[in-house]
Specification:
Number of strands: 0
Largest sheet: none
Strand content: under 5%
Oligomer: single chain
Helix content: 55-70%
Shape: globular
Number of helices: 9
Radius of gyration: 17 Å
Order of helices and strands: HHHHHHHHH
Distance between the termini: 51 Å
Length: 196
């Protein structure tokens, strides 16, 4: 069974779980394939077909979503593959952007975090659902709480130490802490209700 047929048999929650599992436990090559596959699928999902859905079928670095799927995430995939001893074959849209040439890993982590924080994947995903788009799973995956992009980025490029000058700009780590605090607070609110 081809990958496309396999994906069409899975529900969106199953796809999310599988993406998170690959992000956490997969090899760097598998993680790179996941990230690149999500980027390419988002380009097919977001065609500007309705208000609130950007046209991401062509490169437009003017939006956080465009910068992510055409510049930063393909670069993350290339670095993941390089660490696994392979080299990425880029499509014409995924060419190396000269401004990224000088990015070290910290710069890439900060850029991905900034774009993830500024992106509107949750709103885009909701709009796609309203349009009854049958294949809007990639935007759903990037909008989920356990985000594979954040997980993979942190596997390759660890969070910055508190003493690092750019620590306050490490939005991937800041948002992860907020998410953990929010989940902890929700559990504390539910716990008294569970007591007998």
């Amino acid at each position: 069974m081809r990958e496309r047929e396999y994906c069409s048999l899975m529900t969106i929650p199953e796809l999310k779980r599988q993406a998170v599992e690959i992000a956490r436990l997969g090899t760097f090559a598998e993680a790179a394939s996941l990230i690149l596959g999500l980027c390419r699928q988002i380009r097919k999902e977001c065609l500007g077909q309705a208000p609130g859905i950007p046209d991401l079928s062509k490169h437009n670095g003017q939006t956080a979503e465009g910068a992510l799927i055409y510049e930063y995430l393909p670069e993350l995939s290339a670095r993941l593959l390089k660490n696994s001893g392979a080299e990425m074959l880029r499509s014409s849209e995924e060419r190396v952007i000269p401004s990224i040439d000088h990015f070290d890993d910290t710069d890439l982590r900060l850029a991905i975090g900034d774009c993830m924080r500024s992106s509107r994947f949750a709103a885009i995903s909701a709009r796609l659902r309203l349009q009854l788009s049958p294949r809007s799973f990639a935007t759903e995956v990037l909008a989920c709480e356990d985000n594979p992009v954040e997980i993979v980025t942190s596997r390759l490029i660890p969070a910055l130490e508190a003493a690092h000058p750019a620590y306050s700009r490490d939005f991937l780590e800041i948002d992860r802490h907020r998410s953990v605090r929010r989940q902890t607070n929700e559990c504390e609110e539910i716990a008294p209700c569970l007591e007998i």
